[in-house]
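User: Show me a protein chain along with its predicted structure.
Assistant: Here is one chain, sequence first, then structure tokens.
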Amino acid sequence: MPQPHVPAFFVAGDSVAQQRPAENETLSGWPQHLPSFCTRRLDVFNFAHDARNAGNFLRDKAIHVLNLIRPGDLFLVAFGSTDQHVSRGDLYTSPEDYQDFLRRYVSLARERGAVPVIVTPVCQAEFAADGSVADTSDGYPLYARAVAEQTGAPLLDLHRITESLWRRLGPEATRAYFRWYDAGESEETPRGRVDTTNLNREGARRIAWLLAQETARLGLVPEAALSDPPEPLDLGERPRPAEPAPDAPLPDEAASNGIASRSVRNGSFITADANFAGTAARGITRVVFVEDAAVIGSTGVGPGGHWMWRRPVHWAGGQHRIGLYGLTEAEPTGRTALSFTVVDEVAAPRVTAPRPGRLTGPLPLLRGTATGARKVVVLVNGRWIGEAPVLADGAWQFQHPDPWPPGEHTLTFLALFNEVRSPATTHRLHVAELDALDSPLGPRPPSLADAR
């Protein structure tokens, strides 16, 4: 029987898809495992890389892919995990630009006779306080689906596939698919690592198998070309050391017990998905966390006494007081308290200057307040143009280094506490027509002109 023809796969994407060394257990890209599930040779040319978004990959790397791709090959475009982070101005892509870039990939692939395939981002291992899967995608899977529908490009809905899988597995078992390790659990992450975005090797294999099945369902590859998984892929829950039962008696409170929390201290303000990290005295093998007299989690202590922990589900907003104690070969240590406040919403920032209707020169100083935020991000037509830190008294100010073109500009301001963002504040800036714009500073700057 003749072997079914299988097209080559070309992958454009970010760190979730990036090729990793085969021996790396804690970090792996799903495209590198696709050949494992094919009955014949499958060529995968993986150009995905860390810190790539739909825009900078199109600018810097797409030409290399297009020069290699052949008619009939599949061009998998997998962005969104990086693009969505408005807190990272160097990587953020506005929804409008994100969709424009995806449409451009589709057009370029078709010009080369290839088949463009839109891939939605992996659903993160984030669970709400009630245990349901938390949607932290900021709508980017929806934007990608819309482009696939508009252009007629095939859609590999990886976000839907993984969200469904995480829902079935639940919070604790889902972490087995990610680069989420206690200190000392893996030699590759001796101090521990909590990464709810990037997959480990077994997780990437499972996702690759699900995607291979989806490519056959969509008719992108012949179903006869797929093989059975070479080994079981139902990971279940990664084996973890036993921890005290939720209703076990708690150790007595103590002033000190040899456990120090370095990342979250008494009185800290944190996000619902915050990581806790610190050190433990010699002899302590595990740190246990309790709230309302019940165990809510534990983590191992690695080399040098370091530990790292994150609650499998998000904290509810507001004030919390938890207890920490250590396990030793002899008996548990005493229990110390840690109080903190979880920030799950931020008020919209205020813009106090320039006042509405006032004319400004080409280098206006924007000022305002943002209570409870750490920084304010400035957007023009959805595009990031800068940010300003928020001081202890809530004040912020921002001045773009390039002169603004004369005329009216509509600006959007967001207050951020880490990844928690406020509702948007819109402000109009009126820049006067001045002779100074004809000075050696030159014509209006491309950055602001493009953003406009």
